[in-house]
Design a protein that fits this description.
Helix content is 44%, strand content 11%. By secondary structure, the chain is α+β, with helices and mostly antiparallel strands. The chain has a five-stranded mixed beta sheet. A three-stranded antiparallel beta sheet has the order 4-12-9. Helix 5 (122-141) runs antiparallel to helix 6 (151-168), helix 6 (151-168) packs antiparallel against helix 10 (241-272) and helix 10 runs parallel beside helix 14 (368-384).
Length: 416
């Protein structure tokens, strides 16, 4: 990246839209605007948005560069955190901050991530295989053939919520609450609604009370679940209640959104590209790479946000200390200079694993292996049963510029 430059223009004259406009995502018309950004204004200053001003970064290489400099481009909740909604000047007095290690900088981030990371190591993930496969098989065997049902509710949510319940050893009969809390915690649009912070706080209080009870139980009878892991870590066992809640929010949202929306992308994306679906049905050996390609194509989290701790220059563009920088992962994953025919699902894409859907650098998703495991198993179990998900209606989409996903997806199953 360039080492020096004059200060950039405040905005690109040809760009007359705000990339964070929620309608681009809820109406699924984001591809063309972001293609224009990549071509004409890959690093672009947005002077006005409902979240305040910010730098928009739409291409792959500058995002990787920025993510490689966490001391300059901070993730800390103290500066606003990891989403576009976390601006200090946008905070309302009644809106609480819940620190979490993804929204911290080293050394605090390093210590807390290191405490949790072993629970997601290769051996631990391999040990989950049997349970994941059994639950996936049970869900698929419960589905009707030739009848319309909602794939999001019956498959994506059921499987991801079940995984979260296992990871936390959360009461199985109450596991639906994890989905509710995740949806609220990941809803960055709440800050723009008059009653948003109050509703957010009420749900987070509900979550806090539930997990506080589990915390006390694990103090008396620790196990191998994530709450017990936190309790046994020197870096995390003295957390105050808000920090405990923040890290739980991170693990719940992180464990839910990426997997849940990639599972839905499996059904929707392959229906859009039936030639690729036919190739996968003919050769299940493609499944591991297919999973990476579907995650790239979907990009379940549209962006991450950073804040400059000092003046910096990226690709000749000068940015000032204190400014917000929004990294559009979903655009980087469609960068034509990195991925050929990026808007297409190409299941044997050679560089599919280069996607940024899990982030890059020190904040790369700690649970990426668990997400990949669940997706691989789903595709394998579908292949064993020779099941095909046929989309029979338009999907409902998450009302957000952060979580990029589906609220509903009507399908019918058939055999091939």
């Amino acid at each position: 990246m360039s080492a020096s430059a004059t200060f950039a223009q405040p905005a690109h004259p040809a760009i007359d839209f705000d990339p964070s406009a929620v309608e681009l995502f809820t109406e699924d018309r984001w591809e063309a605007p972001f293609r224009q950004l990549r071509a004409e204004a890959p690093i672009h200053y947005v002077p006005e948005s409902r979240f305040g001003p910010y730098w928009s970064v739409a291409t792959y290489k500058p995002i990787v560069h920025i993510e490689s400099l966490p001391k300059i481009f901070s993730s800390s909740f103290e500066y606003g955190g990891i989403t576009i909604a976390g601006r200090n000047d946008m905070r309302r007095p009644e809106e609480r901050r819940a620190p979490m290690f993804i929204a911290m900088d080293p050394p605090r981030h390093t210590a807390q991530r290191r405490a949790v990371a072993p629970a997601f190591g290769p051996a631990e993930v391999q040990a989950m295989m049997g349970d994941v496969r059994a639950r996936t098989a049970a869900v698929l065997d419960s589905l009707p053939l030739g009848e319309t049902f909602d794939w999001v509710q019956k498959v994506s949510i059921e499987l991801t919520t079940g995984m979260l319940a296992r990871l936390f050893d959360f009461p199985w009969e109450e596991r639906h609450r994890l989905t509710e809390w995740s949806d609220v915690a990941g809803d960055v649009e709440m800050v723009t609604r008059e009653d948003g912070p109050v509703k957010h706080n009420a749900k987070m209080d509900e979550m806090g009370y539930a997990f506080a009870a589990l915390w006390q139980q694990r103090l008396a009878n620790p196990g191998k679940d994530l709450i017990s892991v936190m309790l046994q870590s020197e870096a995390m066992n003295h957390m105050d209640p808000l920090e405990f809640l923040g890290n739980l929010m991170l693990l719940v949202v992180g464990g839910n959104d990426t997997t849940r929306n990639s599972m839905s992308a499996f059904a929707y994306g392959l229906d859009l590209f039936p030639d690729q679906r036919a190739r996968l049905e003919a050769d299940p050996g493609m499944i591991p790479n297919a999973v990476q390609e579907l995650i790239r194509w979907q990009s379940p989290l549209a962006h991450m946000r950073r804040t400059l701790t000092e003046d910096a220059v990226v690709d000749g563009v000068a940015m000032k200390e204190g400014e917000a920088v929004v990294l559009w992962y979903l655009s980087a994953n469609r960068d034509e200079t990195v991925f050929a025919d990026p808007d297409k699902v190409i299941l044997d894409r050679e560089n599919a694993r280069r996607h940024l859907a899990f982030g890059y650098g020190i904040h790369r998703c700690v649970g990426a292996r668990v997400a990949e495991l669940q997706l691989v198993v789903l595709l394998e179990e579908m292949a064993k049963r020779r099941l095909r998900a046929n989309v029979v209606g338009q999907p409902g989409r998450v009302h957000s510029c952060f979580v990029h996903g589906y609220t509903s997806l009507p399908v019918e199953l058939s055999r091939y």
